[in-house]
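Protein Record: Sequence and Backbone Structure Tokens
======================================================

Structure line: whole-number tokens from a learned vocabulary of local backbone shapes, matched to residues.

Purpose: to set a sequence beside its fold so the mapping can be learned.

___
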Amino acid sequence: MVMRITRAVVPSLFTILNMFCGLMALIHTGEQDYILAAWFIVLAALFDALDGLMARITRSASSFGIEFDSLSDIISFGAAPAFLVYSVHLHILGGLGVLISAMVLVFGALRLARFNVQLVGYEKEYFIGLPIPSSAITISSFILMFYDNAMGLNGIARQLLAPTIVLLSFLMVSRIKYDALPEFTRRGVRKHPWRFMGFVAGLVSILATRGRAVFPFFVLFVLSGPLRAMGVALWNAVHHVPKVEEESEATTIDI
């Protein structure tokens, strides 16, 4: 019997690497190696981005790939960051700490389920609600920025961790729009030049600072959604623009 290997295997391999990094993050969190656990979550997000890129390059996007990707995401970007923030600090809050930590997992699962049922086509102009990988990277980079192996979280970070988790969780299930990653094609650059330039500038700053710019970059991204929503609402109110019905989360781009 000969096993036939299709193009769909390529993005699935990156999805498996994403899932494996999520497991490694859970293992290192259990071993109280929180810095390495946070980096594994960031690495999982990189593989998550690559599986989508490979699916577009090989033209192998499928419903199976979407479901498989979501299953890996709930491990790497739901369970792993939830366990990380609970172990790092929120465990001192007892039952309340469990509930706050669980919000990352539960609201992330709701976010993924909504994305899957609203998906139209395989190319996305924008997301409705904060994408779960962005939430996970923000949490992980928060730990990388403020956690010290000897001292733990500093005083300000201890006060900000729980509100940050609550805010990110609600943004994931909100109706606020967030830009999707730019397409690295001529058409993609021409269509969204500022989005492409912003992504490149963020990537260069992260590399130049050896990762220290990850947290401020994603804070800006997280805040961009609510700020743009408020700007649009203010513009519509001033110019008396009638409210239109929301489109589906992912729209098929003209080809």
